Amino acid sequence: MGRVVLAGIELYARHGVHAEEEKLGARFVVDVEMEVAFEGKPDVITSTVDYGSVFRFVQKIATEQRFYLIEALADHLAEEIMKRFADVQKLVVRVHKPHAPLPGVVRDVFAETSRRR
Fold first, then answer.
1. Could you tell me the sign of the dihedral formed by the alpha carbons of 70, 101, 66, 6, in that order?
2. Cα atoms found within 13 Å of the Cα of residue 43, Cβ hemisphere only
3. What tens digit of pLDDT does each residue of 49-63 get?
4. Radius of gyration for the alpha carbons in the chain, expressed in angstroms and rounded
5. Where do the Dihydroneopterin aldolase/epimerase domain residues begin and end (predicted)?
6. What 3 state SS string does the chain have?
7. Contact of 21 with 15, CB cutoff 8 Å
8. Cα distance between residue 55 and residue 61, in whole Å
9. Among residues 12, 33, 90, 97, which one has the fewest Cβ atoms lying within 10 Å of its Cβ?
10. 111, 94 contact by CB (below 8 A)
11. What does the angle CA 112 – CA 77 – CA 51 come to, to the nearest 5 degrees?
12. Residue whose C-alpha is closest to residue 113's, from 64, 69, 59, 51
């Protein structure tokens, strides 16, 4: 198995439990780590997962749907990626909320989930 990683997909979306988060929106960052069997296969896009398609898929879901929890967004992304991209054997999805509304300074908050076939 090999790994294909999209690290740091930056999106502007309206996720969160507070009304101002829906109204104003915020920056979110998504990481997608996929294990794919591509060693020894031909040098063509059909022999692996098309990370451009994964990027567009993540962008569409994360910007067109609203979730109250980043945990729910991460879980939904993981489920949908596994359904849509058959070459992905194992998956880790992280959704970061770097500017979470907290009463102090925190570098990052993220939720992580994983799936395996």
1. negative
2. 0
3. 999 999 999 999 999
4. 15
5. 4-115
6. CEEEEEEEEEEEECCCCCHHHHHHCEEEEEEEEEEECCCCCCCCHHHCCCHHHHHHHHHHHHHHCCCCCHHHHHHHHHHHHHHHCCCEEEEEEEEECCCCCCCCCCCCCEEEEEEEC
7. yes
8. 10
9. 12
10. yes
11. 100
12. 69
pLDDT digits over 10-36, tens only? 999 998 888 887 888 889 999 999 999
Residue 97 is a catalytic residue: yes
Tokens 């999209």 belong to residue = 6
Say which of 60, 83, 90, 97 is annotated catalytic.
97
Q: What are phi and psi of 56, to 5 degrees?
A: -65, -35
Question: Residue 73 carries which side chain, given as an amino acid letter?
Answer: L
